[in-house]
Every structure is written in structure tokens, then in C-alpha cells.
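Risk register update: the risk of archive-format incompatibility is retired. Evidence:
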Amino acid sequence: MQSNSEEFFKRLHDELEQTSTWPSEYLFKFIVKSEINKIVEIKNNFDNLGAVIKTGASKNGNYTSISVNVVMENPDEVIKKYLDVSHIEGIISL
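Archived output:
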């Protein structure tokens, strides 16, 4: 799994370098179980960055989607944010 993650983030870094001018607005999307501590932890990772955060519950309320629109300085910052939240149990990054 580790090497797959490294490959994924290297590919993402290269794509972001080629397709965006930095600093740039970036849209993060996550899905987690609808547990307040998980939602708050994701939101806290974007504190003091001027992020616009929107949440939405699934039809049955079991899951919550979180969209975070924020200006990032470079692809390394984007990847760092993904890594910062990757320890949250069951998180899906889109």
C-alpha cells in the first residue's frame, strides 16, 4: 500500500504542476461516516486558511460529504493536506 500511495501522490503532484498556476484554488472532497468528531477534525485541518467548507449528509444520514475550497500555494501543500487527514478512520478522498 505504501508504494501505491507514493505513486499516487507523485502522479498527483506532476498533474497539479502541469495543469495549474500556483498559488491556485483547489477543491478537496471527502466522504466520512457521519460522526461529528471526524467532520470537525477535517474542518480543523483547514482552519485559518480562508477555506470555504460545505457539508452534506447522505440520503440515510450515515455519511457526510465535505467539500473544501481553498487557495493552496503549491502541489506540495495539496498533498500535505491529503496526508494530514489520511489517518481519519474510513475517510474517502475524492
